[in-house]
Write a structure and sequence with these properties.
By secondary structure, the chain is of the alpha+beta class. It folds into 4 domains: 167 residues, Periplasmic binding protein-like II (D-Maltodextrin-Binding Protein, domain 2), CATH 3.40.190.10; 85 residues; 80 residues, GAF domain (Beta-Lactamase), CATH 3.30.450; 169 residues, Orthogonal Bundle (Hypothetical protein af1432), CATH 1.10.3210. 54% of the residues lie in helices and 13% in strands. It contains 20 helices and 11 strands. The strands form 2 sheets. Strands 1, 2, 3, 4, 5, 6 and 7 form a 7-stranded mixed beta sheet that branches. The chain has a 4-stranded antiparallel beta sheet with strand order 9-8-11-10. Strand 8 and strand 9 form a beta hairpin. It starts with 7 loop residues before the first helix and ends in an 8-residue tail after the last helix. About 2% of the residues have low confidence.
């Protein structure tokens, strides 16, 4: 394999002109997937805003007061502007010129990819001076033109030989690990060192003075040899005491180090709880982590009214910004160090709990927005009223038949609600026409999957839902629209939507046709299985309908 280092814009052009076989380190986007094929991910790349740690920056809204450095053509500029439209930028040709501006303090904030930016900061000795705000996470791939997938097989085969530990080791060669020592540990080590140094200094000073005195009095104290031996024994005893103190300090340091290791492990385990929605399960897992952290006999956690475990002892509050979320009861005696570690840990728990609440509220907001879109479409297109809810119902029931569950099943529901949202771009005079559409009118209606895709893909986390909506009018035989996909080229969820949408339309009354009966609609599905519809989905759905799964549709739409 030969690597050809060129500027980014030229690299893309060289692939398109077939001057090179592949392009390295490229993000996957829907637009690029239309003409490129991608390897499996090579690296995870986090895009971040870097800022000097002495700046009062907590959120993206705090960046309005600063000029943010960025590379020319940086795609994350638009993402940052969506989070804060007031951000001002200064653009640079490369990272080296941007680092020079940082060293001269011409800028104190810049936008960059995590691994690359940390490499240059480390190279300039600035890495420990900066903190970050995470903006977005993407994955880097190797890409080839459509039709050259055999190259990707070679690339993927090679990538599979590189373990995750080896990748991390490669990154660490260029970016040193920054270890942040907790303030309380620094205090303990500092005061312990002071105590040890003081004791040792006193002992050494005493020995030094004693030896001087012995040297000065040697000739005079020959007759007092026994007394001198006694003094030597006293000195030896003092030395033993100092040695014992040193051993005690080393033991204390070892205990602190062990407690710190348990704290780090607990933080790692705590990070796994962020996306647990069930408060009862969250509290139960939290109790186990706390028990391991401080080696408590029993732990009781009370969080948002949920009680886990039984314990009698000291109580610690779980609160954030003066708002109490609950408390923890620890059975057993705690040392001062353990008490401080537990309080610091609970502060982190409080912040995570607050973040979970924000995520829950954000998801509810997304759902409310989607429902508002559906209601707006119903007002716009009379015949759509009630259609979306029934399509969503049938889609979810079909999904359950194929063991679709969790987040994927929930997204299938939203796809059912939103599958026709693109019709708001179709004139009402066509949508509400009381007789059959002409060929030109039908061509206008056929734009709605594409417009629906363009609308829904703007919802964070709904990129896959947008694709299902785009392809819900594709046919199993490849004669559908808008992309002419066939068979399993069509996403499985889009094939489900196609069956659910078509069945509901068959059952609905329209001014120019009477809705079909359940059996008539079933026969229509069976006739078109393997042509318009996925035959396996039709087979399972027909079984469901014959067991009474039909909603009894009779409305217009």
């Amino acid at each position: 394999m030969e690597l050809v280092p060129v500027k980014w814009q030229l690299a893309q052009q060289m692939v398109l002109e077939k001057k090179v076989d592949a392009i390295d380190q490229i993000f996957k986007t829907p637009e690029r997937e239309e003409f490129l094929s991608f390897s499996k991910p090579v690296f995870e790349m986090r895009s971040c805003v870097f800022f000097r740690k002495d700046l009062p920056v907590k959120t993206f809204s705090d960046l309005s007061s600063y000029v943010v450095g960025a590379l020319r053509g940086e795609g994350m500029v638009d993402v940052l502007l969506r989070k804060n439209p007031d951000v001002r930028f200064e653009f640079f040709d490369n990272y080296s010129s941007m680092m020079e501006a940082l060293k001269k303090r011409e800028i104190s904030v810049f936008l960059g990819d995590d691994v690359v930016a940390r490499y240059y900061l480390s190279k300039e000795g600035l890495l420990s001076d900066f903190l970050t705000l995470h903006l977005e996470t993407n994955y880097l791939h190797v890409a080839v033109l459509k039709g050259n997938e055999s190259i990707l097989e070679t690339v993927n085969s090679g990538l599979s030989l590189v373990s995750e530990d080896e990748r991390n080791e490669i990154i660490r060669r260029y970016i040193p690990l920054v270890v942040v020592t907790p303030p309380w540990l620094m205090k303990v080590v500092f005061y312990g060192s002071v105590l040890f140094s003081t004791a040792l200094g006193i002992s050494l000073a005493f020995v030094y003075l004693l030896r001087r005195k012995v040297e000065e009095k040697t000739l005079q104290l020959k007759l007092k040899n026994e007394e001198l031996k006694a003094q030597n024994e006293e000195i030896e005893a003092l030395y033993q005491e100092v040695s014992a103190n040193q051993e005690e300090i080393e033991r204390l340091y070892s205990e602190i180090r062990e407690l710190n290791d348990r704290f780090r492990h607990s933080i790692k385990e705590l990070s796994k709880l962020v996306f647990i929605e069930d408060t009862s399960k969250f509290a139960s897992e939290l109790a186990e982590i706390i028990r391991d952290l401080i080696e408590a006999k029993n732990v009781k956690v009370v969080l948002d009214g949920q009680v886990t475990g039984e314990a009698r002892g000291e109580t610690f509050e779980i609160s954030h910004s003066k708002e109490s979320h609950g408390y923890v009861v620890i059975e057993g005696d705690l040392g001062e160090d353990e008490r401080e570690v537990l309080q610091a840990f609970l502060n982190i728990v409080s912040a995570i709990h607050t973040y979970r609440e924000l995520v829950r509220k954000e998801k509810k907001l997304h759902r409310d927005i989607v429902r508002t879109w559906v209601r707006a479409l119903e007002y716009y297109d009379y015949y759509t009223k009630g259609h979306s809810e029934e399509v969503a119902y049938y889609a979810v029931e079909i999904g359950k038949m194929f063991n679709v569950d969790g987040e994927k099943l929930e997204k299938l529901y939203w796809a059912g609600l939103l599958h026709d949202i693109g019709k708001i771009y179709v004139p009402q005079v066509i949508l509400n026409k009381t007789d059959k559409l002409g060929e030109r009118e039908f061509d206008v209606v056929k734009i709605h999957p594409v417009k629906g895709y363009e609308l829904v893909r703007e919802i964070d986390g709904f990129e896959d839902v947008a694709l299902w909506i785009r392809h819900h009018h594709e046919r199993w035989d490849g004669k559908g629209y808008p992309d002419g996909l066939k068979g399993e080229e069509i996403e499985f969820e889009a094939r489900i939507l196609c069956v659910a949408d078509s069945y509901q339309a068959m059952r609905s009354d329209r001014p120019y046709k009477k809705g079909k009966t359940v059996e008539e609609a079933i026969q229509e599905l069976l006739r078109n299985a393997g042509r318009q519809f996925d035959p396996v989905i039709v087979e399972r759905f027909v079984e469901f309908l014959r067991k009474g799964g039909d909603l009894g549709t009779g409305h217009q739409g």
